[in-house]
Amino acid sequence: MKTYQKILILLLVQLFCFQQFSIAQDTLTVVKSSGEKSIAQDTLTSEKPSRKKFKAQDTLNVVKPARKKFMAEPLKATMMAVALPGLGQIYNRKYWKIPVVYAGFGGLIYSIGFNSKQYTTYVRAYQDFTDETKETDSYVELIPAPQQSYDPVVYPSTYDPPTAQNYKDQMIRMMDSYKRYRDLSYIGIAAWYLVSVLDANVDASLFNFDMSDNLDLTMAPVQLSMPGGYLGAGLNVSLKINF
Fold it and tell me: pTM for this structure?
């Protein structure tokens, strides 16, 4: 064969192989529709799966309800304070007032005990002072003066009636004084109890009171009445509170 014939045969063989390779491709491409015309290509493309890992999400979102704002009720706070002192202050969330409430009751109870003890001591001393029994001498601890001047039972020869009467009057005054303070302490407990109840009621009533910033302080010159019916210039200060 001649050389050009060999070259022609070789070209034909290569052309034949190229067409076979081109026909073997089977790919599919999907093109989204747009304003322009798209050409449908029937091709199939093999792509490797992505290595990105997807985590399984199995969660439940729980929406917490809105926290309800505390609204104190005056009647409830009053009834709780009546039932137990300090309970109304706990209901109003004013915990710092609880020690104040019980400190007041503690002081008044101590006052009752102290005055009652002193009153009983002077009553016994007065009874021992006025009787005629030598063994009853509890008044000696309360009277620093010598017994010779006021004790007719033990020292009848040196007994001085005016001195004895003076000590009797002193003991009576001390008895009345301690008795009065004891009774006032009882009244004080009742008053302090009412104050704690009133505080719980007022505190609950003003718990949700909205104090706005609309406070106005105005200073303006005015005419003030002077003695004799005359009018003079002056300065008036007024405070206006808007609710």
Answer: 0.57
